[in-house]
Each structure stands twice: as structure tokens, then as C-alpha cells.
Amino acid sequence: MFIKFFVVLIVSLFSTPLFADTKGPAVPNYPLDKLAENIYVIHGPITTPNPQNQGFMNNPGIILTSKGVVIVDPGGTVQSGEMVLRVLKTISNKPVVAVFNTHVHGDHWLANQAIQARYPNAPIYAHPETIKKIPEGAGQEWVQLMERSTQGKSIGTRIVAANHPINNSDKITIGDTSLTIHHYGVSHTDTDIMIAVDTNKALFMGDNLFNGRLPRTAEGHIGRTIEACEKIIKINPSVIIPGHGKSGGKKMFYHSLDVLRILYTTVRQQYELDLSDFEMKPVVVKALDKYKHWETFDSLVGKSISQAYLEIEQADF
Ligand SMILES: [Zn+2]
Questions:
Q1: Residue 174 belongs to what domain range?
Q2: How would you classify the pairing of strands 239-241 and 61-64?
């Protein structure tokens, strides 16, 4: 009797998974916005990862070429990538032939897993520093950050890192479409690439540009992000896709860039008046008044002022 009980117990222990839910729920379909001929973006929520957005909060790009589909930044969870593939099916039956990751942050690339599961031969391109940093810990950090901030909705997501290094001025031709890579050193991070499509009809900025949310700049350099933006705009792109927030033209670009420019110039003026970072905060916040409704403004403006202050102080020596 007891033996039978233990056999049943042991068998059931080994056959039942430790957690009933080994995969978080599907991400619902989001609208697909056509920005130019053969160029589409799924604009994710502007919020940071939370249980409501389930870790989907970036701007996956879809480029249709004569050879197949190119995906830029497929999303932040395996479930996001599966959603992108479902939505893609509504406009194309062609296979995914290449994936690009704009930088090391997992909210942009953790969905590689879903694309690779379906299209194992599609190369995944990224800057060499992205490819290097993911196995060194950045990948695991992002898997955990997503699980924590979505309260487990991202479970099932695992690391599939980019495997094809690309760098500044590389040109990649896919069927009838050519992509030009821009990397200007440290900006949002030291891993960023920006991707221009064909004769600059569209430009994927990655997180060098945010529209409607204050960027997290701790791993990068605010001053050099401004410089990278001022340099890239000279290629004269028609449509500009920020890492987060709605795409647009030059008006959107300059409005979004100005949050960093105003921050920087005001901090510099106050620095020259010998004010410390916390003393100057009210003046800087006032100068940024038209951005105060932006997502993460309250949580990040103090940190951004301190970082700009340190950058300016460092340049001063
Ligand atoms: Zn980022």
C-alpha cells in the first residue's frame, strides 16, 4: 500500500512541471503603422516594462524586401516576438531573412528568440559590443528585469543574442533594399547602431532618440547622444523611428532632441554660475517645462541633471 503510494507520488513529482505556468501569456496584437513604401512599425506603449504592457514597449520595425522580411528590434519578450510574427503575417507571407538589434538593452532584442525559433537561418545583426556584452551578463540581467517588472508575464523568454557583427558605414543589401549602418561611438550606450533604409527614406534611431519619455542615459553619454543626433540628421531622412514613442519627421526629431539640448545647455549655464546639481534642479526643471508630462520625467530628471553635470565638469578639466 505504502509502496504504491510512494510510486504514485514520485511519478507525479517528476511528471508535473515545477511551475504550472512555464510561459507567460500571449501579448495581444498591436496595430501596424505603415510609414513609407514597404516600411512598417508596431509602436509599442511608451511606458517602462510593467504587468500591463507585459514587457512589450518598444518599436519593432518591419521592412519588406524582394528577398524577404527584415525585422528591426523585434521586442522585449518571446511573447512580443510571437505577436510581431502574427501581425507580420497580415501583410506578407515571405520569410524573415534578417534581424537587426539596435543596442544591448533587452527591451529591444529579447524577442529574437521567437524569430529564431521560426526562422533559424536568419542572421541577427548588431554592433560587436552588443554581441560581446550579452553573454557577459547583460542578457541575464535583462531576462530578470523583465520577469520582475512584468510580474512574471515574460516567463519563457530566454537569451538569443545577435550573431553577426556590423559597424559604422557597413552596407547590407537584402534583395532590392540596402541598409546603411551608423555608429558614432558612445551615445545612448556604447553599443548603438542606427539603420538608414535605401536613400534615407527611413531611419531607425534605436534609443538615441525617445519621443514622449525621458531616456535612461546611465550607460551612455548625454552630450555625445546629442552630437550623434545632430550628425545623423544630416543624412536627411524622410521618416524617423525613435526607440520609444511615435515616429515622425524632422519636427518630431527636433522636439525630442531638444529635451536633451535644453537639459544640457541649462545645466552648463548653472554650472558656470557655480551651482551644484541639486541647487540647479528647480531652474533646469522649469526650463524643461514643456516636457514635464513625458513618461519617466519625474523619476529620471534628477539623475539626468547629475549626469549632465558630471559630464560637463569632466570636460572642464
Ligand atoms: Zn535602451
A1: 23-257
A2: unpaired
- Whether the Cβ atoms of residue 195 and residue 179 lie closer than 8 Å to each other: yes
User: Is residue 243 in some structural domain?
Assistant: yes
Structural domains in the chain (count): 1
Domain assignment present for residue 314? The answer is: no
The pLDDT tens digits of the residues spanning 281-307 come to 999 999 999 999 999 999 999 999 999
- Residue 93 alpha carbon to ligand 1 centre in Å: 30
- The CATH number for 202's domain is 3.60.15.10
> Three cell numbers at 52?
500591463
Ligand 1 centroid–CA 316 distance in Å is: 28
Tell me the per-residue pLDDT of 44-56, one tens digit each, with 9 for 90 and over: 999 999 999 999 9
| Position 29 confidence tier, pLDDT thresholds 50, 70, 90 | very high
| Amino acid (1-letter code) at residue 263 | L
Summarize pLDDT for 94-107 with one digit per residue, the tens: 999 999 999 999 99
Distance (Å) from CA 236 to ligand 1 centroid: 23
Q: Distance from the CA of 310 to the center of ligand 1, in angstroms?
A: 21
Q: How far is the CA of 8 from the centre of ligand 1 (A)?
A: 50
Burial of residue 158 (CB within 10 Å: 0-12, 13-18, 19+) is: exposed
Distance 164 CA to ligand 1 centre (A): 20
Distance 209 CA to ligand 1 centre (A): 10
Percent of the chain whose pLDDT exceeds 70: 93
* 182 located within any domain: yes
Cα 85 to ligand 1 centroid, rounded to whole Å: 22
**Does any domain span residue 143?**
yes
**Centre of ligand 1 from the C-alpha of residue 113, in Å:** 18
